[in-house]
Amino acid sequence: xxxxxxxxxxxxxxxxxxxxxxxxxxxxxxxxxxxxxxxxxxxxxxxxxxxxxxxxxxxxxxxxxxxxxxxxxxxxxxxxxxxxxxxxxxxxxxxxxxxxxxxxxxxxxxxxxxxxxxxxxxxxxxxxxxxxxxxxxxxxxxxxxxxxxxxxxxxxxxxxxxxxxxxxxxxxxxxxxxxxxxxxxxxxxxxxxxxxxxxxxxxxxxxxxxxxxxxxxxxxxxxxxxxxxxxxxxxxxxxxxxxxxxxxxxxxxxxxxxxxxxxxxxxxxxxxxxxxxxxxxxxxxxxxxxxxxxxxxxxxxxxxxxxxxxxxxxxxxxxxxxxxxxxxxxxxxxxxxxxxxxxxxxxxxxxxxxxxxxxxxxxxxxxxxxxxxxxxxxxxxxxxxxxxxxxxxxxxxxxxxxxxxxxxxxxxxxxxxxxxxxxxxxxxxxxxxx
Length: 434
Hints:
Elements: H1 2-45, H2 52-56, E1 68-73, H3 92-98, E2 105-109, E3 116-121, H4 124-174, H5 188-253, H6 260-287, H7 292-295, H8 297-311, E4 316-320, H9 330-351, E5 355-362, E6 366-373, H10 387-398, E7 402-407, E8 413-420
Parallel strand pairs: 4-5
Antiparallel strand pairs: 1-3, 2-3, 5-6, 6-8, 7-8
Helix pairs in contact: 1-4, 5-6, 8-9, 9-10
EC number: 2.7.13.3
Enzyme class: transferase
Cofactor: [4Fe-4S] cluster
C-alpha cells in the first residue's frame, strides 16, 4: 500500500513539474516575442514620425505598458530602469517557478534621434494568464491523484481482506482448529481457493478424528490389558506364591525331624517367594492403582505416594487431595491417576528433587492436578518432547482437557492438567473393563 501511494505521488509530482515547466517556457516565449514585436514596430514607426523627438519624450520613466516597460535613454543622463510587477492573483510559488531567470529586453537605436529606447518585457501579466490556464489542469491532476488513490485502496482492500481472512484460517489450522471454514468471496479466484481450503480442512478433520478414534481404541486396549494382567498377577501368581509359602510353612513345621539342609532350602524358597510376591504387588499397583474403583482417586493416589515414599525416603512428598471429588467419572479418574503417575516417574528419573507436591482440585465442571518439584528442571524450548510428556498431553486433549508444563533449569518443574469431570459426549473414551 505504501509503495503504491508513493508511486502515485511521484506521478503527481512529475505531472505537476511538467505542467509548470511548460508554463515557464510559454511565459518566456511570450515575453521574448512581445519585446521583438515592440522593437520592430517602434523601429519602423519612429523614423517616419513628423515629430519623433517629441514622441520619444513621451516615454517618461514613470510610465509602463501592459507586458512592456518602455524607457527613454538620453545622452549624459542616468540610464532609466524597469522593475517587474507582481502577477495579480497568482501564488508566489507559481510566480517564482515560472518567471524567466533573465527578463527579455532590448535597446533600440533610432536613426537621426538623440535618444534610445529601452524595451523591457514585464512577465507579470503572462504569468497571471499562465496561472489561469494551469490551475484548472493542476486541480484536475490533484483530483485524478485522489480518485486513483481511492480506487487503488479500495481494490487492494477488496483483495487484502480475503487474504487476511485466509491467513487467519491457516493460522487456526496450524493450531489444530480443523473446524474452521472460509466463507464465499466475491472474487472468483478467492472463492475457488476457499472451496479448496474448506475441502482440505474437512479432510484433515476427518483424518484427525480417525486418528483420535484409533488412539482412544489403542488406549482402551492398553488399559484393558493392564487390568487383565493385574488380575492375573493377583489371582494366579499371587495365589501360587501364597500356596508355595504355605507349603514351605508346613515343611518348616516339621523342621526338627528334617535334615538341616532341607530346612535351609525351605527357608530360602520362602524368602524368594516373598520377594517375588512383593515384586508382583508392585507391578499390580503400577498396572492398576489399588482402591481406585472401590475408594476413589484420592485414596489411590495416597497409596501410590506412600509407595514412592517408602522407595525414596530422602524425598519429601506433600499430597493435597481435593475436598470434593464426588461424582468424578471413573474414566476421568484413571486418566488423572496416569498423568500424576507419569509426572512422578519423570521427576524421579530426571529431576533429582528434594520435595514433590501434588495438589488435586475439584470444581463444578473440571478437576485439576498439579505436580511440582524442586529438581533440576529443563528448558522446554530446547528439549524435545518425550514419550511420557506426549502421553500425558494426549490423555488430556483426548478428553477435552489441557496440559501445561512450566520448567526452568535449576528452578524445578510444574505440570498442571485440567480435565472435565465427565468425558465429552461426542468423544469415545475407553472403558475400565470389558
